[in-house]
Amino acid sequence: MSSSTEAAGECGKTAWPEVVGLSIEEAKKVILKDKPDADIVVLPIGAPVTKDFRPNRVRIFVDTVAETPHVVIKNDTHSVPEYNYQLMMSSEEGAGGKRSWPEVVGMTIDEAKEVILKDMPDAEIEVLVVGTPVTRDFRPNRVRIFVDTVKSTPAVG
């Protein structure tokens, strides 16, 4: 076996264009099948990243809104899953304002931000990957958008 063939065999597959459009979990399964030792890092599209090269790291960038963002009223007694999108307001502020954005499900981050900001211009929007732990502190203008669909080709590095 030549040294170039050996080098190619050691590296294995380095990109997975076939997972674009899949959910995070589906993409992880495909990547781990080809590269069982992969250290998979999932980030919202546009998130800052380091420029160092790590041969086992595969970054997956996601950008599609997964579920309906909705308002959570301060002191609300309803059980809210940690991964849920949240807009937290005081009871007085939330009473007359829009409480959910079902129309943004399936949109990109930028599209969803535009819709939410039309309804709430002072919203502070945080973009997170589905399943990211969140704090439960009250911030009256916070909107959390969780994303879960692969946007671009994951690659080693």
Mind sketching the topology for me?
Blueprint: H1 3-11, H2 24-34, E1 39-44, E2 57-62, E3 70-73, E4 86-89, H3 91-96, H4 109-119, E5 124-129, E6 142-147, E7 155-156
Average pLDDT works out at 80
- Percentage of β-strand residues: 15-25%
Let me know the CATH homologous superfamily of the domain at 64-76 and 98-148.
Answer: Trypsin Inhibitor V, subunit A
Low-confidence stretches: 1-9, 76-95
Global geometry: elongated
CATH architectural designation of the domain at 64-76 and 98-148? 2-Layer Sandwich
Instruction: Quote the distance from N terminus to C terminus.
Output: 26 Å
Write the element-wise H/E pattern from the N-terminal end onward: HHEEEEHHEEE
Q: Structural class of the secondary elements?
A: alpha/beta
Say what the CATH topology of the domain at 64-76 and 98-148 is. Trypsin Inhibitor V, Chain A
Number of helices: 4
Give the CATH level 1 class of the domain at 64-76 and 98-148.
Alpha Beta
The major pleated sheet works out as: 3 strands, mixed
Q: Approximately how much helix is present in the residues?
A: 10-25%
